[in-house]
Design the sequence.
RNA sequence: GGCGCGUUGGAGAAACGGUUAACUCACCAGCCUUUCACGCUGGCAUUCAUGGGUUCGAAUCCCAUACGCGUCACCA
């Protein structure tokens, strides 16, 4: 077989060689130890939490080592591509504060190792493919998808390993004349790797998460180029990560199974293999079992969900970091003031098994993050979210910034600040009673307070109310009302002898609280009353008496 | 079916052959308290999927078994 001739026949238009690309994409000039990583999302119109998960790993590895973090669009599957998907990826990553040093942008690319969209790299793959053909390591295959499917069925029936390999690789032994004939007839073809592998042999691959992996050699003649001349993932990965000079390939563990193919191509081309980081994917509890997060089944795990609910990007980061490196929480406790980028992230600390995604834990971290944020920043964040998702509330907030900040600061000061806010959406609900436009009674009055007693309490409260009082004076008056009406001053006393009292001071103050705020859960009632002002407080009290 | 990866409490997990199996979240109880929170204190795995072995000693090493997940496309 004249491989040179075959290569020329298959790729007449390709003039550049792999060596040409070596000089177009020279080794990077980076400090020692700097890592080059990338994420390679497919533009399918759905940005997934798993995408962010791997992005966080890649970003940390690159940026904490002074390296480069790349966005590459893996658009080799034209069938699944959705218009506008690149924009969605970009905006989601930007929202979560994931910054790329180079890669695809909306209007073109940024960086010297592009293009960063795989379909635009067709010639590069083909140049490498041509070389493989010249070396006799790749060959054209004219089998149709149907034929390959039937082969698999036959193998299944005979309990053989499925696939296109060895004696089953019909086109592997085609002569140059036969190939020429089929090409001349205009038959479509794919380019297959001519595997020299033997399942009896094994290869050792370095994985930064799992240590040294010993895997079976690949023996399948898998597809390098599809009939449209666009590579499969397996080939694109090798070519791109070589010419982009990626040092660490971060990807999900579902790629472990095809890893032997990838190392085989690296070796066939005499290229240095990257260090792999095969991550255990986030899982979801599904009834009795757990499974990988799936695009189709878990739409609520689209990144957009967290944006709509108003989770803070920082909270998501911190949550993902605790899942990735469980010592992160300890570090956070010891370094409450430091940004998370100071945390020494390590692949060795990563778990080999998939973690369940825990929304409750995320909420706890959100509270923590929001609690530590100064009121003015809370205001800015909340306003930004409202502008997008609750325009009416945005206007209320913007109408009086000082008031809003004051409200947000309530209960935040002191040694033990409250952790009332979880997400922006929840914050809008929580803060609604500070605004008449959103004020309403959410919680019921205490059970042992009938409407008549409610009026009695509020009546007396109104009579003694003096906005010049300080907190102590104010509460002293509430105590007097309690005594007059037969409520226990200490909840404990009431608990001990419920028959002696109508209820306790808890019931009385809650009645007032609900009249003023509509809630049984709020920061200090007197501070709230002062904030609302005399007029509004009185109006609400009066309204509650009807 | 083949191959691969995994299995410590409700969740995330620490432990890297050696006394009572860290820590965080959740849950429960108590304290604090005018509510709800916050905070504090305590409880929550006599046991590390199961069964064998190695060892003076195992969650930690070895071997089976079970279970779960992944993968076997001209999808990534």
Sequence:
């Amino acid at each position: 077989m004249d491989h040179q001739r075959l290569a020329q026949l298959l790729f007449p238009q390709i003039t550049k060689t792999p060596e040409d690309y070596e000089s177009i994409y020279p080794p990077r000039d980076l400090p020692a130890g700097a890592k080059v990583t990338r994420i390679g999302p497919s533009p399918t119109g759905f940005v997934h939490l798993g995408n962010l998960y791997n992005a966080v790993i890649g970003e940390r590895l690159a940026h904490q080592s002074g390296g480069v973090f790349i966005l590459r669009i893996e658009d080799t599957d034209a069938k699944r591509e959705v218009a506008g998907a690149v924009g969605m990826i970009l905006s989601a990553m930007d929202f979560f504060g994931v910054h790329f040093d180079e890669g695809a942008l909306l209007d073109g690319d940024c960086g010297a190792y592009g293009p960063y969209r795989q379909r635009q790299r067709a010639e590069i793959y083909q140049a490498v493919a041509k070389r493989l053909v010249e070396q006799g390591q790749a060959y054209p295959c004219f089998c149709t998808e149907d034929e390959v499917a039937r082969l698999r069925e036959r193998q299944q029936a005979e309990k053989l390993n499925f696939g296109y390999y060895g004696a089953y690789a019909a086109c592997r032994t085609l002569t140059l004349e036969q190939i020429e004939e089929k090409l001349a007839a205009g038959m479509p073809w794919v380019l297959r790797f001519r595997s020299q592998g033997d399942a009896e042999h094994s290869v050792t691959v370095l994985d930064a998460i799992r240590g040294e992996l010993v895997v079976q050699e690949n023996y399948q003649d898998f597809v390098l180029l599809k009939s449209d001349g666009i590579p499969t993932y397996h080939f694109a990965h090798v070519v791109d990560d070589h010419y982009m000079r990626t040092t660490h390939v971060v990807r999900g563990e579902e790629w472990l199974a095809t890893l032997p193919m990838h190392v085989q191509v690296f070796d066939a081309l005499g290229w240095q293999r990257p260090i792999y980081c095969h991550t255990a994917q986030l899982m979801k509890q599904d009834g009795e079992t757990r499974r990988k997060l799936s695009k189709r089944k878990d739409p609520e795990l689209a990144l957009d969900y967290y944006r709509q609910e108003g989770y803070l990007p920082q909270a998501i980061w911190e949550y993902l970091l605790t899942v990735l490196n469980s010592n992160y929480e300890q570090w956070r406790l010891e370094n409450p003031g430091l940004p998370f980028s100071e945390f020494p992230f390590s692949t060795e600390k990563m778990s080999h098994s998939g973690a369940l995604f825990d929304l409750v834990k995320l909420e706890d971290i959100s509270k923590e993050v929001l609690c530590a944020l100064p009121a003015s920043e809370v205001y800015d964040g909340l306003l930004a979210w409202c502008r997008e998702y609750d325009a009416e509330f945005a206007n209320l907030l913007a109408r009086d910034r000082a008031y809003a900040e004051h409200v947000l600061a309530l209960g935040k000061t002191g040694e033990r600040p409250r952790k009332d806010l979880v997400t922006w959406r929840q914050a809008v609900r929580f803060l609604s009673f500070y605004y008449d436009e959103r004020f309403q009674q959410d919680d019921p009055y205490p059970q042992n307070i009938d409407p008549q007693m409610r009026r009695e309490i509020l009546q007396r409260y109104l009579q003694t109310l003096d906005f010049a009082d300080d907190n102590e004076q104010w509460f002293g008056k509430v105590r007097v009302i309690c005594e007059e009406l037969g409520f226990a001053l200490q909840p404990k006393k009431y608990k001990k002898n419920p028959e002696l009292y109508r209820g306790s001071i808890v019931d009385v103050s809650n009645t007032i609280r609900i009249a003023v705020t509509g809630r049984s859960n709020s920061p200090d009632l007197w501070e709230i009353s002062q904030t609302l002002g005399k007029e509004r407080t009185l109006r609400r009290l009066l309204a509650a008496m009807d």
About this structure: The radius of gyration of chain A is 33 Å. Chain A has four domains: 3-15+122-279, 299-371, 373-437, 451-545.
